[in-house]
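Quiz preparation item.
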């Protein structure tokens, strides 16, 4: 009988390996992420709003919505089918399967994000608990075809038993993303002219400065790696759940 790994940190390396399966596709998605990120300041200019640290993330979210809503989940569904070929997402029909599920999965993810966000606003701990217990539900709906209730139950049951190793891996991903953000902020402070720290750089400056395009490209690649690493972590969690069930 095989022994399950005592750590899921290998998911970070496996996420990179998943990205390497389709270099042209990944490059295209990183470029798309860069273009969509730059759509945010373009929308700010079209709306006629001035520099604002509150509005910038809002317009940025709207710009990146197609990537988060459709293109990244599609990449995850494709990679899952190619590497797992599971009954819920067979490699021969993954595109049709994805087309039938992506909107339902996105709506579940959006609703869950709202509930978790309220939990964070009301009190930090409830938001963290909700995210930890039910965060895998949209992924389960997308690539295994579960209903919303089935996906919530599976995520809660799996995380209740295996949360320490999963949280360890997620924190490692967040730490690497934080290191990138700090490095990018340090570089931008030295490349850009001084701006009001309470307002941030203007939309026009973000559109005209090549450094923003470069860092948005790198940020898009980082986002793709994180999502592929999360997929690898999901596969490890599935294996852990299946391994425990086979031992009962």
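Solution:
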């Amino acid at each position: 009988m095989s022994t399950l790994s005592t750590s899921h940190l290998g998911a970070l390396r496996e996420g990179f390996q998943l990205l390497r399966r389709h270099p042209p596709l990944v490059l295209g998605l990183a470029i798309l992420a860069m273009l969509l990120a730059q759509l945010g300041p373009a929308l700010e200019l079209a709306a006629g709003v001035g520099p604002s640290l509150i509005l910038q993330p809002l317009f940025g979210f709207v710009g990146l919505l197609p990537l988060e809503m459709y293109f990244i989940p599609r990449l995850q569904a494709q990679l899952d089918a190619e590497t797992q070929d599971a009954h819920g997402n067979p490699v021969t029909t993954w595109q049709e399967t994805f087309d039938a599920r992506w909107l339902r999965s996105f709506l579940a993810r959006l609703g869950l994000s709202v509930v978790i966000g309220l939990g964070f606003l009301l009190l930090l701990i409830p938001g963290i608990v909700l995210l930890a217990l039910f965060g895998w539900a949209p992924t389960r709906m997308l690539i295994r075809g579960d209903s919303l209730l089935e996906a919530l139950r599976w995520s809660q049951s799996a995380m209740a038993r295996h949360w320490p190793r999963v949280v360890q891996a997620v924190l490692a991903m967040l730490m690497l993303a934080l290191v990138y953000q700090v490095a990018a902020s340090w570089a931008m402070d030295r490349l850009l002219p001084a701006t009001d720290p309470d307002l941030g750089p203007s939309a026009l400056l973000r559109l005209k400065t090549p450094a923003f395009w470069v860092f948005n490209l790198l940020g898009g690649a980082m986002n793709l790696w994180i999502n592929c690493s999360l997929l690898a972590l999901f596969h490890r969690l599935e294996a852990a759940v299946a391994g425990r069930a086979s031992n009962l």
